[in-house]
Hints:
elongated, 15 helices, nine-stranded mixed beta sheet, alpha+beta, binds zinc ion
Amino acid sequence: xxxxxxxxLEVHAQLLTKSKIFCGCSTAFGExxxxxxxxxxxxxxxxxxxxxxxxxxxxxxxxxxxSCRIAPYSLFARKNYFYPDLPxxxxxxxxxxxxxxxxxxxxxxxxxxxxxxxxxIHMEEDAGKLKHGETPETSPFSFVDFNRTGIPLVEIVSxxxxxxxxxxxxYLRKIRAILQYLEISTxxxxxxxxxxxANVSVRxxxxxxxxxxxxxxxxNSFRYVEKALEYEIKRQIAVLNEGEQVIQxxxxxxxxxxxxxxxxxxxEAHDYRYFPDPDLVPxxxxxxxxxxxxxxxxxxxxxxxxxxxxxxxxxxxxxxILTSTKAxxxxxxxxxxxxxxxxxxxxxMMGDLLRELKRDEKExxxxxxxxxxxxxxxxxxxxxxxxxxxxxxxxxxxxRTGERPGKIVKDKGWVQILDETEIAKxxxxxxxxxxxxxxxxxxxxxxxxxFFVGEVMKQTKGKANPKLVNDLLKKMLKE
Length: 479
Ligand SMILES: [Zn+2]
């Protein structure tokens, strides 16, 4: 039987406010444990939460940027569960009345645009962090750091519209891009400021009803989300093919083993005993304020993509990738400003640069090779100082060391050979060494021409100007 997967994603993103969601404590990352706390965020009796206006503004921004309807009335609720990093014994979240509803984002899958529905966006507070003793022998204790407790989060719940791990990755990248463009979250998955849980089920192709789903947790990179989904889809199909049932449960992704492991039975909403938080008044969001926020929105990924296509004349495929992060779009525009040949730059970025970054699992803003490096190198090709072939080596060297292209070319002696006599000498050597190929060529086997170009390039260590090589070869092969 053929099965199809159905995936829905829940994304949690920390908001970049200076203070926490219900108190004035700082949200700084990496401080001494338990130094950024107060009676409110440590859940002391009698302390009262007050909502952070900036956090609400940021959440509204996100709602608008994802085409959601902003609810005029939303309500904070208590989500009850006990966990040591949640000192109140409940988390303040939203339940029946979330902040934003019914939006969507667009992804491009194999050239096809697809809308992924956003069911709701709500606000909540983050929990603290547990640190377990390295081993039971060295430390039998677990430690808790409440610095993170009370950092504002938005939870973005997608519809069950995602049909492959690849689409899940595309969706997450789009959400992250929107957060970054809005400057309301770092979107950093490794630091935990951007987290994702996935609901996944499979069903026989053509069936309307959903299969039993499992929830996947603990995937702290985009790659792991895709891998965990791939694994889990295969696992569920295998279970069904055995004639067994998929059990509704929460499963953890195990990075080392590359598998998902059963953690616990899945909670239902009623397990949390949600009820409106009596310490917080309902959130009434004024229409004028919403419109004010709307008019302050920056250029978003899809708008920027449209502008790149229009203004720079690059294909949609390129524009989609180049606007996929704010840093990448900035990098691209900076390059074009310095060297106004948009398609050439796009080719180098999408080919060489992204390949290197992907291999090193780096983001573009960590690259030693800056827009000015790339622009300088492209100018050197244009002026004929280096050949396009040598440029590949220069590129790698710049990427590795951050050295300027001019210095690299000078140090390595990679300056292009423009001297016709020198090139002609190399051609003579090649002709002498390949009598059979010369014969074939002269009999009309034009295809073999590339062979001669390659040989001459070998002779000149890739430094010969390709146009001169071509022209001279054509002339000399006829003689
Ligand atoms: Zn506090």
